[in-house]
UniProtKB/TrEMBL annotation:
InterPro entries: Ig-like_dom (IPR007110), Ig-like_dom_sf (IPR036179), Ig-like_fold (IPR013783). Residues 63-177 form the Ig-like domain. The lineage of its organism: Eukaryota, Metazoa, Ecdysozoa, Arthropoda, Hexapoda. It comes from Anopheles culicifacies. It comes from the Eukaryota. This is Ig-like domain-containing protein.
Amino acid sequence: MHSLHVSYGEAYHSVHITNLNVPKTYVLDRNTYDAVGSGTLEHGGDDVTTGLPMTSTTEEHLPAIVSTTVPSEMNFTDAGLKPLIMDCQYEIKARECGFVLKWYFNKKLIYQWIPSRTPVGMNQFKNELQTNYSMSDSINYKYRALVIRNPKLNHSGEYMCSVQTYDSFDRRMARFQIVVPEKTLLLHYENDGESETMLLIKCSVFMIYPEPNLLLIVSGNLFLVSSRTLVTADANHMYNKTVYGKIDKHLLISPTSISCVLTVPDSGYIRKRETIYYDPTPLTKWSRLRMDERGHFQLLSDDGAVMAASTYEDMARHRDSSLLLTGLTLMN
């Protein structure tokens, strides 16, 4: 959130905003959204009908994977079709006159309240607001909140609260994002059809708003550049997206983790899918070499049990040390 202040002194002698409470993200309940139909959740000010066929993709039958993660510290509201309350908290000195509170959406005036008058909704929000929602019994603070009765897709954007008197003014802004959560997020890997040494990784998300970002991660810290991306959207602005990534199987030490992280721009919305890659080829002697936490090398049997352990110096004296060092270079 950003703010512009007229008074820059340590003590305020004019009207000023103390807190702008606008959730960063508002997550619509998926079941509620499906039940009422997206016709009640307009986008871009245009009427949207339901029941129209969705543009299809080729990624419809992928296996289910294991985990979902949503960081608890993210600032978002999880709700169905409930009123959305944005609160503008401020202080005003008793001596100041001519107080006016205004709310703007993408720099366009949508709400105005003068304590001696009835609050008024304006422009595209004229019929969208609950203007009689009281936040306080005090005459100068009673109708300060912006209350949207039924949040819609086209309500994502920048909100600004402005307070002013005859003598001073203040304003603050905050970015707000509506999210319709995905129906499905899937992660899958398979041998690449063009090269037997390459592994093809695919991550697909279905029926989400707005268009998300998908990031492929291997071994916890290796980010794959997408080799191909497919994006489609239906008439109700629900997105399907698939990203493809390739990696040389020689760079992977089996088993290793493969993850897909979904994020929505300008929000705290995050989802994650993870699976484990296992090399199906028979293990050779050198591919069974592992290093423990003390820096000692361990030779594993086919079932993963430790057969032998040695230091690097011991193994370097081995008559096949040149082959061993080549194997170590590949694995590192």
